[in-house]
Amino acid sequence: MPDCGVARFLLLLDGPWATLIVRELLHGPHRFTELMDALPGISAHTLTNRLRKFVRHGLVTRTAYPEIPPRVVYELTPLGHQLRAVLTAMDDWALTVPTSAFTPTGG
């Protein structure tokens, strides 16, 4: 286990989609298709793998309802909800970055 908190964070929320999935779940419980619709460009495979990882690590709960057709709902746990402050800080910082920082300098 890394001693560095940032390294620990990245063990749980690695990859380009992880924080965006959490961002959507911060709005409340979602079904799989709702998450797919909210995240244009994510593949079903990637979303499935990320959600499974979040469930394994206690960030998300998966509730399957015995209905026809089956209904599965994903929701952040209290631990997952603690990520709100992290995503808010990321958002606040990113909104202060000058537009020129997003343009390659060619160096």
Number of strands: 3
Helix content percent band? 40-55%
Please report the number of helical segments.
Answer: 6
β-strand amount: 5-15%
> How is the biggest beta sheet arranged?
3 strands, antiparallel
Order of helices and strands: HHEHHEEHH
> Kindly, what is the distance between the CA atoms of the first and last residues, rounded to a whole number of angstroms?
36 Å
What structural class do you assign from the helix and strand content? alpha+beta
Residue stretches low in confidence (pLDDT < 50, at least 5 long) are none
Q: Within the largest sheet, what's the order of strands?
A: 1-3-2
Overall mean pLDDT score? Answer: 93
What is the 3D form?
Answer: globular
**Gyration radius, rounded:** 16 Å
Write up this protein.
- It is a single chain.
- With 107 residues, the protein is α+β, with helices and mostly antiparallel strands.
- It has six helices and three strands.
- It has a three-stranded antiparallel beta sheet.
- A hairpin with a 5-residue loop joins strand 2 and strand 3.
Could you name the key traits of this structure?
6 helices, 49% helix, alpha+beta, three-stranded antiparallel beta sheet, 107 residues, single chain
In short:
The chain is α+β, with helices and mostly antiparallel strands and 107 residues long. It has helices at 5-12, 18-25, 32-38, 44-56, 78-81, 83-94; strands spanning 30-31, 60-65, 71-76.
Ordered list of secondary-structure elements with their pairings:
Blueprint (H helix, E strand, L loop, with lengths): L4 H8 L5 H8 L4 E2 H7 L5 H13 L3 E6 L5 E6 L1 H4 L1 H12 L13
Antiparallel strand pairs: 1-3, 2-3
